[in-house]
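Why this split exists: single-chain examples teach little about how molecules sit against one another. For that reason, every record in the complexes split bundles all components of an assembly together and asks for one structure covering all of them. Below is a record exactly as it appears in the raw files.
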Amino acid sequence: MRRAVLIAVPYAWLLALFLIPFAVVFKISLSDIALAIPPYTPTAKDGIWNMLSQLDFENFIFLTEDDLYWKAYVSSLQIALISTVLTLLVGYPMAYAMARAPEQWRPTLLMLVILPFWTSFLIRVYAWVGILSGEGFLNQFLMWIGIVDAPLTILNTNTAVYIGIVYTYLPFMILPIYSALDRLDGSLIEAAEDLGCSRIKAFWLVTIPLSRNGIIAGCFLVFIPALGEFVIPSLLGGSGTLMIGKVLFEEFFSNRDWPVASAVAVILLLILIIPIVLFQRNEQKQVEAEG
Amino acid sequence: MAETVFAPWDDPNEKPLIRFRNVTKRFGDFTAIDDLTLDIFEREFFALLGPSGCGKTTMMRMLAGFENPSEGAIELAGQDIAGVPANKRAVNMMFQSYALFPHLSVWDNIAFGLRRESKDKAAIAARVEEMLKLTRLEKFARRKPHQISGGQRQRVALARSLAKAPKLLLLDEPLGALDAKLREATQFELMDIQEKTGTTFVIVTHDQEEAMTVASRVAVMDEGRVMQVATPERIYEAPDSVYVADFIGDVNILHGAAKPIGDDTYEVIEAAGSTSVTAVSGRPFSDGQDCHLAIRPEKVSIHKDKPDADNALQGKVLDIAYLGNLSTYHVGLPTGDIIKAQVANTRRVSRRNFTWEDPVWVSWTKTAGVLLAE
């Protein structure tokens, strides 16, 4: 009995905060746009059966007809993928250094990784505008030390988006990798060296495989939110930066086309479900392997 | 048939495989190894025995190449190995935690070192199969380390470290994680494997029974120094210091002053002066020199009436420790000293001769004990 209650809590949570909102969005995606409040038809006021009979997949068909949408999806996937790889390349050495740091330093280093969360995400992204713009700190610094003569155009390009995503999601990459490396038994590396491995070889054959789960977890934690990212591309990206989060925002607020916006969101969710399921399977395997 | 005793350490022509020459190792202000000189010979099963923190693990790590001596030199087969990194030494180590690679199967764990040597696949496979057979692990080759028992993991670790046929195998508390029964069986297995492969083994342990069982020679260490290096029998029967006598097994120590009475025989007059015993010693003592007489409890016998013996002292039974096959009687002397006497329980416990508070005599011969200066 008590068990059933305990299990019911997370399920109720999922139902109330995920499944019901999803059902609502899905229903809107099957509706038609209308000049009304709410701006779609039919609604439940028309009666349940009447409403259900009027639903159709028109909006999804529309998404396949206009190539803006699939281009936005592909471009989002590309940006999310590239930024995940960049975050991994930056985050892994940091996590490795933290795990190898003297014991008494580790809590401080962890704190420093988490510290940026104390400031609003929006303010931090705005700060990058100040750094990356034509007259920004970065360009001023580069010109002052004489590396460049004219300011570089970084802001409002995809490069700025990559910088923004890597910066914002870095802690999500570092923490799982750090926890995997922290658990790594140092004698395994010594054993590998004892059996004839050089330092680098031991790293590839032992450290990397044994931090695999941390790498996978970190990559998903970066990739999933980066795919639907809206704030970073809209603040740092240019007109050429096509991301699905931005398209979604425009459909919703500029065009006030809730049904098409919902259809975009449903497809985005379907795309996200694949990595989420893979992520879950990875976690489960890890639990089994340790159990 | 005359059997040749394996004792290369007594042969002056024999070249040692390993030489520690005045090796000192410091970590900051802490001296882990203090000016240590030691020879280990080929095919030996050498045990480093001592309490934790005595420097035995540091010695092993210096042999493996994870630490370098601060002073002095370590030679392996006549060559100074100071600059040689761990991955280039013909030395393999079996780690205390076994350090098996959790992401690799038993087979791949054993093959790990062989694959680093760029041998061909068939040769690697043949060697791995040979190792699996030696350690009786054929059935578990495909399993991952977390899918086998502690004893099997121990054998995988052994197979992995032997696979490259090292000149020297280091074993760091190899049996520490096993339960008592399994440990005993594994000790004999280790000796068997050592004999079959002819590899020189150096084992680090804090378990004296383990060291005595497996080793051809034992080095007893304390605070970074070797106290005594000898065969297990000599360590037990002829310790050359009170520390060694006390560290290995149970012992009675009587402290007193020596008085030579001829024929290498000395009278030991106890500090309190009320008792005196006689002992034979090969080591000379001057008149009145401070000395300790160490006698093993099993060499002390216990009697109801005064026996006709070299040394007999009267006392009272204070405690009896019943160990099943043996009983240890703690006999309190009038001086306050306690002499432990160990007797085999040849009769059932209900019929034993002595009980608590009984007045008894303890006795031993003059050759039973060892007279030590310090």
